[in-house]
Amino acid sequence: MRALRRPIAVGMAAACTMSVSAHTIGGSGDRLSSSRILFFGDLDGTLLGGAPGLATFCEHWLTIERPSGSMLAYNTGRCYTQYCQGMNSGLPGMHLGGALRGVLPTPDVLITGDGTEVRWLVDRASADMSIDTEWRARIREHWWSSGLRAAVIARMAADDQGIIPDLNSPANTDLPGGEARHAITLADAAQARRLCADLQREFSRSGVTFYTLDGWGQPKPTLIVAIPSIAGKANAAHYVRAKLGFESSECVAAGDSSNDASMLEAGMPFIVVANASEDLLEQAAAKPSAQHHYRASGSHASGCVEGLLHFRSVRVR
């Protein structure tokens, strides 16, 4: 992957005049039709991962996007409790030391647990977020009340090697019953991928989505994650988009790993940051909607700014 040729300036004048070379995956790409956008940014490996790039993103968002009426949504696989801990005191694996509050812009919307929970900003000064009760009711009916969650957990239990303690702790969220998402860990990545494919076939008609994800610790295990199919990052993003009154053409998303893959076919311009996993790169290139995808030359948050400027054709109205 090629390196970013030059730093991206983010002042208003620079943003209006700078030329950014397109590096699309499957075509010429789209241009945003509106001055305001709704940006769905993954956290780990996308916005988080490089302090200089994050500072660039923050300046871009606060001086260009927010004054244009744009709205910010974090769309993360992190559970809600982990997100709060990262904001207040930092977390291992969040790629930046110390608390993130005051470093990351406060989002207007927070999507956690790979689309299983949605929260809305109540007060910007305190960063207070309120759970979306409609989305919660949908997940509860499909996942808990139907007995589907219990069936999935029972099927996965025998293969769980328990490498990451408290992975499914009820304390991971402030919702009764804990997270909707359920995960197990295996030491062997190839075995995990085979089991994930088997599980997807078994539950193909039940409304469950399974995927693998790199874990944390040394050596790193592989997670097999199960979520209700009505959730997922893309479904939650469309729910948020519709509630806020944005068209898909007014949205941009960014990601770096396999749990961002559903966003590739969400009908929104998508930024694949330079440090993206090979799995996501392969899926992005293979999708029929590849003309909507922009492969940034910059990594992490720098790539997000680069992609936003590309999709805007470097025009701010």
Question: Any key phrases for this structure?
Answer:
32% helix, 17% strand, 2 domains, 317 residues, disordered N terminus, alpha/beta, single chain, three-stranded antiparallel beta sheet, eight-stranded mixed beta sheet, Rossmann fold
Name the CATH class of the largest domain: Alpha Beta
Low-confidence stretches: 1-22
N-to-C SSE series?
HEHEHEEEHHEHEEHEEHEH
What is the oligomer described by this structure? single chain
Named CATH architecture of the largest domain: 3-Layer(aba) Sandwich
Compose a concise summary of this entry.
About 30% of the residues lie in helices and about 15% in strands. The chain is of the alpha/beta class. The strands form 2 sheets. Strands 5-4-3-2-1-9-10-11 form an 8-stranded mixed sheet, sandwiched between helices.
Layout of secondary structure:
Blueprint (H helix, E strand, L loop, with lengths): L11 H6 L20 E4 L9 H15 L5 E5 L4 H9 L20 E4 L4 E7 L4 E4 L1 H13 L2 H10 L24 E5 L2 H14 L5 E7 L7 E7 L4 H12 L6 E5 L14 E3 L5 H9 L6 E3 L4 H12 L6
Parallel strand pairs: 1-2, 1-9, 2-3, 9-10, 10-11
Antiparallel strand pairs: 3-4, 4-5, 6-8, 7-8
Q: Can you give a write-up of this model?
A:
Residues 1-22 have low confidence and may be disordered. Helix 2 (51-65) runs parallel beside helix 9 (300-311). The strands form two sheets. An eight-stranded mixed beta sheet has the order 5-4-3-2-1-9-10-11, with helices on both faces. A three-stranded antiparallel beta sheet has the order 6-8-7. It has helices at 12-17, 51-65, 80-88, 133-145, 148-157, 189-202, 233-244, 278-286, 300-311; strands spanning 38-41, 71-75, 109-112, 117-123, 128-131, 182-186, 208-214, 222-228, 251-255, 270-272, 293-295. The protein has two domains: 23-115 and 232-311, Rossmann fold; 148-228. The chain starts with 11 loop residues before the first helix and ends in a 6-residue tail after the last helix. Helix content is 32%, strand content 17%. It has nine helices and eleven strands. The relative contact order is 0.20. With 317 residues, the chain is an alpha/beta fold. The chain is globular, with a radius of gyration of 19 Å.
